[in-house]
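Appendix B, example 12.
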Amino acid sequence: MSTTRGLDRLLAFSDATVAIAITLLVLPLVEIAQEVQDKPVGEFLDEQSFELFSFALSFVVIALFWRLHHSMYEHVERSTPALVRANLAWLATIVFLPFPTELLGADQDQRLTHGLYIGTLVAASAAQAAQKWLILRDGGTARPLHSDLVSLGLMTAALVVAVLVPAIGLWALVILLLSGPIEHLVEARS
């Protein structure tokens, strides 16, 4: 086991990395804002509505992942090498997310783009579930693992739907609204 100072450093690094990822989301918007010139701002914003939506979606997604990460580590006293590796894998998915976010606005292969975006969320969910499993395995306290597994399963289902039915695209993520009811059913059976 590592020291408490090691855990503090891990969490500070994680918070900083998440903050950088959120900052990277806005950079494409800053770049396109230079194109406004003589165009009315309302018209410009209307033309960029999908880019603004993509930014907002990814901002909320990263914020939710960070909030879950924060609560997961609330009662952890020490880190382990395995926990550090799982956390780094999670951080890799978080800092990668601005890339597929930027691709969402491009008129390219939507099946691949949506698959890459939602696939990144699946990887982030898997890495987060791995962290929770390691925390619980090592005697830490956290919400039960089944909530993470439900989210991971639904995220994977959204990925499959988005890839198999490209017209649905990111709307496949609406399936995540089932996570609460499914978690309640699992808790009731436990």
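DSSP finds eight helices and no strands in the chain. Helices lie at 4-33, 41-47, 49-72, 81-96, 98-104, 110-137, 145-164, 179-189.
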